[in-house]
Amino acid sequence: MTSVEGDPGSGLRTAELSGELRRMALHLETAAVLELRAQRTADPLQVAVLLRRAEHRRQEAARLRERLAACGLALPPRGQRTPGVTPV
Fold first, then answer.
1. How far is Cα 59 from Cα 57, in angstroms, rounded to an integer?
2. What's the rounded Cα separation, in Å, for the pair 68 and 88?
3. pTM for this entry
């Protein structure tokens, strides 16, 4: 298996990383749509379900972000960034 340049131990290929980035973006976009739908509905039960699903999508996106950040392909969440360090 071809590894990513600069991180030979990761075992992730460029195509796999590209797919991971797409999945992360899709999870974040889906979470935003679910939250918007929750804001527009009057049914409290549906609101709870939609918000729970949105949170699950955000959690999955966060897991993907951590994996990508470990490979140097995504920034860590804002609270975990080192102040004064500009990403390359």
1. 5
2. 15
3. 0.70
CA angle 38, 26, 5 (to 5 degrees): 150
Average pLDDT over residues 31-52: 98
Contact 3, 12 (CB under 8 A): yes
Residue that has been written with the tokens 């973006």 in this structure? 25
Enumerate the domain spans of the chain: 14-73
Burial class (CB in 10 A: 0-12, 13-18, 19+), 64: buried
Mean pLDDT along residues 55-73 = 91
Residue type, 30: T
